[in-house]
Amino acid sequence: MADTATPTVIRRADYAPPAFLIDTVALEFDLVPERTVVRNTMRVRRNPDASHAAHFELMGEQLEFVSATIDGTPHSAVRTHAHGLSVDNVPDAFELTLVSVCNPAENTTLSGLYVSSDNFFTQCEAEGFRRITYFLDRPDVMATYTVTLRADKAAYPVLLSNGNLLDEGDLPDGRHFARWEDPFRKPSYLFALVAGKLVKLEERVRSGSGKEKLLQVWVEPHDLDKTRHAMDSLINSIRWDEERFGLELDLDRFMIVAVGDFNMGAMENKGLNIFNTKYVLANPETATDTDFANIEAVVGHEYFHNWTGNRVTCRDWFQLSLKEGLTVFRDQEFSADMAGGATDEAARATKRIEDVRVLRQMQFAEDAGPMAHPVRPESYVEINNFYTMTVYEKGSEVVRMYQTLFGRDGFRRGMDLYFKRHDGQAVTCDDFRHALADANGRDLAQFERWYSQAGTPRVTVSTHHDAAQHRYRVTLSQGYGDAAPAARDTQKGPLLIPFALGLIGANGADLPLRLEGETAAQGTTRVLEFTQTEQTFTFVDVAEKPLPSLLRNFSAPVIVEYDYSAEELAFLLAHDSDPFNRWEAGQRLATRELLGLAARAATGASLQLDDSVVNAFARVLTDETLSPAFRELALMLPSETYLAEQMPESNPAAVHTARQFVRRRLAEALKNDWLAIYERHQTPGDYEATPEAGGHRALKNLALAYLAELADPADVVRLAGAQYDAANNMTDRSAALSALLTAAAASDGRRAQAALEDFYRRFEKEPLVIDKWFALQATQRGSAQRPVIDIVRALMSHPAFNLKNPNRARSLIFSFCAANPAQFHAEDGSGYAFWADQVIALDALNPQVAARLARSLELWRRFTPALREKMRSALEKVAAQVKSRDVREIVEKALG
Q1: pLDDT confidence of 341, banded at 50, 70, 90?
Q2: 95-116 per-position pLDDT tens digit
Q3: Peptidase M1 alanyl aminopeptidase Ig-like fold domain spans which residues (predicted)?
């Protein structure tokens, strides 16, 4: 199923409007797994704003052409080719009917129309619709759709498509039909159909204007008891979008469908969202607190796309962040409001910290590698490879900066103007920026550079206190450093960086801030508009030398360089009023210590942890004024992957040694405190999926994880075993199993093995839980006697493992390659050889999934020489054998 075409570079500069427009589409499906017949009738006209074209070119892949008619008359001037169909001799306006055949049963790419668990599903973004029928498959071609589905009624009793149901009924020979109409113009990537044996949870709600709306969550029958949280998340999303942005659900019904075979998290098809089961199904026994939170966020994300992506869509795929970055920002704000409303800054900060951790660990690494690209890319070979952290997460940060500059009210004014101008259109990132600028009376020409420059900016800070004049100067300098080679190719000048800061006095209190030239102080946090390569801001009435609190709430996606001492970081950790920067101080303190220890570990030198670090952790651990959720995040060490990326040469083994040394030292030094925290933060009674209860579980289970590091784990094995046996929720059960696996490295491991076997027996009928079972084993520590790669290879032969299922592949193979760096980067290169074999195998089945796995080695040049050579050999093996353009683009860019 792989696309073996010679890669062609697509460039943003080459964009041209389509030569033809399609106003209406009427699709008829006769659904048969091995041979689905599609009849596609389109009203077509020449585009008055485009150059004249001699042929009507349509895209198509893996289709069998049957016939074509124009205005009811058979048309023979049709040529099929490798990438679609050419129709010659067409008038300026016409009705074209094409009949074609596809084979959903054999579609392992899960793009287009495919069969999963004997049901039909679709995934059309970005270019899957061309696997269903011949079409002008590009986002700036928007049409209204009427869809008729016909299928065997016993096998496929439920027939769904976009929009509103017009009619349904029985047909001869045990078949039936359903006819759907979507009254809103949409691009083909938003088309969807579902057919199969499904059941629903259904509710009716009233919108803000009083209209009744039908909400449905469709799943396989055995999963109906796991749909309540998804429905509640959908209702909350609808209410939030009305209240925060004045955006109302525009269809009579809104449907979510869950499928176990899905390449992504979910898809925002108009009115018929198709989800990976991972982001729909949840009950206390099978889903963790993280799963519940992720479901809420992803349901929100896809619903919010109804306006930011569907009603206003992308002109071309280079504008992908126009919908994805904006909608990630909206789902992050939604989750923060669900946790703490608009006023609980501590709860909102916890969400902010979680989001920034992901950005810095994954997107910053992307910015420093061969796949680095601007938020609005300039070129691509395979668009599926550009559903990236940069487009989504950095794109969200770019949107957040508008709100930081203009405030919530100013941002809302910009959004209102954006929809007023562009509802029903396919537009660009520049159109969004112009709406925000015009609504707030600002010139944002310089802000455009955030969309066109790659790399992570670095802001160097220097300060000077004039005690005699009571003045404090803060000088900011911006650049990219040597770690972002892509930035050198795209840099067009300094960025507009909203840089939030505060000044803290010796007593730990924030100082009032008055800039030179102002008549009065204005608050204790100021957002400085940093627009020059170097810029100095002078604060007056500063009698004592303060300690700067820099980039509060992470006001811009940059790296801040300021030489804090360890004592200053400990002071910020204890006193900073900005929750994000309080967390950040602890992370800086830990990172500095861990990198120093890793450097010593690399040379075989002895390791010792400074008591000041232990004391700083102890203060946070025992500070009951801090929320449990915040303490859990503050006490979590930076990841091994993040730490390795901060080294001049990444050395995963040295980082692992250093990090495990610190974990054990903190476990031993604070053992009694950890035990007290473990007991104090139990959550007896029925499970509650609330942020407060989740915070208690998170801190308790972090304590258990630290205690599992003790040299003598016998007591902890008993503690974790008891928690495993008594658990009434998946959060506690999986945390206990993880602790048992950790402790197994220092014990005989029999209790951990017994728990693994019990876990599988309990949940073997729950695919998402078995994914956790695979992932826990793939990410365990392992030992010299039993390396994890041997465990992973053995699990690939397990009856429950299926390489064709993306969730299962991710749970085992991706978890090992991406989330177990010490084992994956084994000195013998066995992890890289395993990676190469799996990329090649997946490439033949599902190039999108294979390409995601291929990215595990994209930063190979940054590792130690011995590892580097083995990585290059693995990359060259993959480059020589894969066929899809998805994977070829990744490995060829990595090899350079």
Answers
A1: confident
A2: 999 999 999 999 999 999 999 9
A3: 455-563
Bond into 126 cis (ω within 30)? yes
- The owner of tokens 């938020």 is 375
- What residues act catalytically? 302
| Contact yes or no for 68/97 (Cβ under 8 A) | yes
Residue ending a domain, choose from 197, 216, 246: 197
Identify whether residues 403 and 551 lie together within a single domain. yes
**Same domain for 328 and 187:** no
Specify if 543 maps to a domain.
Answer: yes
The CATH code of the domain that includes 141 is 2.60.40.1730
Q: Is 871 contained in some domain? A: yes
User: Domain residues for 854?
Assistant: 764-896
Could you tell me which residues are beta bridge partners of residue 774? Answer: none
Which amino acid appears at position 566 of this protein?
A
Pair 733, 741: CB distance under 8 Å: no
Total tally of structural domains belonging to the chain: 3
Phi, psi dihedral angles at 194 (to 5 degrees)? -140, 135
Using alpha carbons, list the distances in angstroms from residue 225 to 55, 258, 292, 381, 692. 53, 13, 14, 43, 24
Which CATH number belongs to the domain containing residue 460 in this structure? Answer: 1.10.390.10
747 in a domain, yes or no? no
Give the residue carrying structure tokens 């800070």.
461
Rounded to the nearest 10°, the torsion over CA 320, 322, 325, 326 is -150
Q: Specify the pTM.
A: 0.98
The end-to-end CA distance of the chain, in Å, is: 27
Q: Are residues 319 and 184 in the same domain?
A: no
Domain assignment present for 432: yes
Closest-CA residue to 781 (of 802, 755, 752, 805): 752
- pLDDT band for position 2 (cuts 50, 70, 90): very low
pLDDT, tens digit, for every residue of 540-593?
A: 999 999 999 999 999 999 999 999 999 999 999 999 999 999 999 999 999 999
Task: Please report the sign of the dihedral spanned by the C-alpha atoms of residue 250, residue 255, residue 261, residue 264.
Answer: positive
CA distances from 429 to 11, 77, 418, 517 (A): 16, 39, 11, 36
Are 47 and 19 in contact by the 8 Å Cβ rule? The answer is yes
Q: How many Å apart are CA 337 and CA 349, to the nearest integer?
A: 11
Q: Locate 722 and state its tokens.
A: 């008891």
Could you tell me if 175 and 151 are in contact, meaning their C-beta atoms sit under 8 angstroms apart?
yes
Question: Which tokens belong to 646?
Answer: 């901060």
